[in-house]
Amino acid sequence: MRQSALILMLVLALPARARWTPVTRPSTHGLSSVCALSPSAVWAVGDGGQAFFTEDSGASWSQQVTGIADDLLSVSFATPRAGWVSGVGGSAAGTQDGGGFWARQVVAVDDYGLGAPDSVAPIAAASADTAWAVARWSDVTAVCRTTDAGRNWVSVRYSNHSYFAPNTVYTLAAVSSQQVWLLASRIDTAGNFGPVLLRTENAGTDWEIVPLPATQLNQPTSPHWEAALAPVSATETWAYARDAVRGGSALFHVTRSATGAWSAASWDVNAGIRSMRFAAGGQGILVGDATSQTADGFATVRRTANPGGLSLCASFPSATLGFGVAADGSACQWMPDAPGDADGSGQVDLLDAVAALRVVRSGGQTDAITLGILDLAPPGGNGQVTEADVAAILKTAGGTG
Hints:
The protein is 11% helix and 38% strand. The chain has 5 helices and 28 strands.
């Protein structure tokens, strides 16, 4: 009985089943970034300065004129009206009227005499007036901020550039106008480059260095990382980095205790991750080469293939709903399955009931629970899923025993 209870707990710890469903294709060219403001309102950007907007959950898309011809790499909106796009060659533009008019903006202040940056990405809208961005010249980066809706951008000092100080910034995430996280590299005491987190609670006036444990990412040569951040609060975040040249990647979960001490757990993950969303309690979703869900801080994980096996960039307006875009110009929506929907048809039907009945008759209690039978028909306190429970699915589906 204890073993059955343990199996039940492990199954119920998994997140609700969900899947990607293709929506109308926005573009025939590549898409690289998406920002979902709500389950229905979504922005997507990509090659050739293209920007698209839907207000009907991807049933239709309208192309927007940003005035940028270079490839766009990032899009972020703080409100339905205030947002920014940025990309290759330092290109950036902002809107204050929901995309009706886009104003070109100079994000990067060239403090190094290197000319225009190779790229500005990511860009993160924190409020209608405030946004943060990373400008990149090869391995040289600058963290930039505007507080006047993009009329002026300034460089924010995050490092004293000493030997052991953080150097290249790979991504950032804004919790608010004042609270920002950075993922950067720095040389450790062993002489290797490794990842480190920085956080500010006063808009960059002061930065606190949050150390991360050594992983396979720590190497003696300057890294080229792909990175993602998913802040939960000012004292908790999830971070990911992957070495694009040598391979190897790591996922980190960082928290601060009531006494102010930082702790970090890490996992070696064999997958490319481009987007993450986490909530308190360890409920999260990680999207890239595939899609992984966890409801318990990565103790258990459910992995789902992406449509066409494509790598996705994704945005989630809630814990259960999201949108993804791919390099072939396609888009898809992440939605939970109906409880008991075993065949993925999007509804509970007779085929689901037949599948569940076979499982129960073969004694497969755990599989039956995974199919969602308990969500539809709690087993009445007997600790087992029975044919009577499966009959509830038949009734829900409009069938007969």
